[in-house]
Amino acid sequence: MRKLELTIAASDYDHFRDFRSGDIVAEGIDPIWLSMDFHEIFARFAARRDWDVSEMSFAKFTALATEDNSDIIGLPVFPSRMFRFSSFYVNRRKGIKTAADLRGKRIGVPEWAQTAAVYTRGWLEHVAGVPLTSIDWVQAGTDEAGRMEKVDLELPKGLRLERIADRTLGEMVASGELDAVMIAREPKVFRAGHPDVVRLFPDFRRAEEDYYDTTGVYPIMHVIAIRKSVLDRHPWAARNLFLAFEEAKNRSLDRLDDNAVSRYPVPWLGDYIRSLRDRFGRDLHPYGIDKNYPTLKLFFQYAYEQGIARKLVEPEALFPEGLSISVKV
Fold first, then answer.
1. Which residues of 260-274 are buried (b: 16+ CB within 10 A; e: fewer)?
2. Is the pLDDT of residue 62 over 80?
């Protein structure tokens, strides 16, 4: 029987390594792996569906997957997860000491449909009590001018969003044209030590630990998307792909347990991993719907409220049925 040939575009993650190398096989599938910068992957899959299976920004995926007659669906495989209290940057001269001080300010984001900003804006409104409509929002590139949205938006009534094509967020927060920015990656002005650009939460690690302990939410940044036309012809491929991704991730986690040799150039890594498992459990990076229900539920709510998702959906709605079938003997 000829195997199903699928193109898979994804970044180079350790938790994909064994699947990519061929040490793990997705039964019946012959994968053709494409490795490139994830911004390239997102833009091309969003615009043209250049491959069959794609790593995708969770926000952009949600926008596309909730469209009427959408042609994509997700696998509950989450390549990237990060807490995001580190992504609030403010201009020191604006007197912003707490999140409540962001009310009425001028705040920049790289894209409205950037996943990290969905979480931080949702937290700002629902937890810090700052309505998104009380802020003047600006969309621009972080360190390069001209960045644009990759998906269409349906912004809530009363929300103000201005696009600035010829300036960067880094420049504008440093000059004081913006009071604050929400950026997933550290802007160059911050890395360079600009005296007026500082984090709103200097001890972001503590804030993120408290957030997880309170909510059980471990933010998902990226997801694996697949063209529905593949599953229309080969519905069995979804679970076979999921099992291969899951086994590759489990092997990556197992490598963290091997403390007989130093596999990674990080001191005391074994002790650090044990401390993380005391908080998160053995599986530090869970896939699937059930294990991620609070995170998925919260994100889909925020994405809908912020005009990114076309409709409010339950977590099960954007993933194929049958992925969690029990086969225990």
1. eeeeeeeeeeeeebe
2. yes
Given a contact cutoff of 8 angstroms between Cβ atoms, the answer to whether 91 and 180 are in contact is yes
Start-to-end CA distance of the chain, whole Å, equals 28
Residues in the chain: 329
Structure tokens at 305: 């409220």
For the segment 52-64, the average pLDDT, to the nearest whole number, is: 98
pLDDT the model gives residue 262: 72
Express each pLDDT in 241-268 by its tens digit. Answer: 999 999 999 999 998 877 656 778 888 8
Helix (H, G, I), strand (E, B) or coil at 56: strand
pLDDT of residue 57: 98
User: What's the rounded Cα separation, in Å, for the pair 140 and 158?
Assistant: 20
Contacts of 64 (CB under 8 A, 6+ apart): 46, 70, 72, 151, 225
Cα–Cα separations (whole angstroms), residue 142 to 109, 145, 169, 178, 250: 8, 7, 5, 12, 34
pTM of the model: 0.95
Domain 85-215: what homologous superfamily? Periplasmic binding protein-like II (3.40.190.10)
Q: Supply the pLDDT for residue 14.
A: 96
Q: Encode pLDDT of 67-88 as tens digits.
A: 999 999 999 999 999 999 999 9
Q: Are 196 and 93 in contact (CB under 8 A)?
A: yes
CB of 295 closer than 8 Å to CB of 220? yes
Rounded distance between C-alpha atoms, residue 161 and residue 220, angstroms: 25
| Ranges of each domain in the chain | 4-81+218-292, 85-215
The three-state (H, E, C) secondary structure of 124-141, written as one string: HHHCCCCCHHHCEEEEEE
| CATH number, span 4-81+218-292 | 3.40.190.10
Tokens 């990226």 belong to: 222
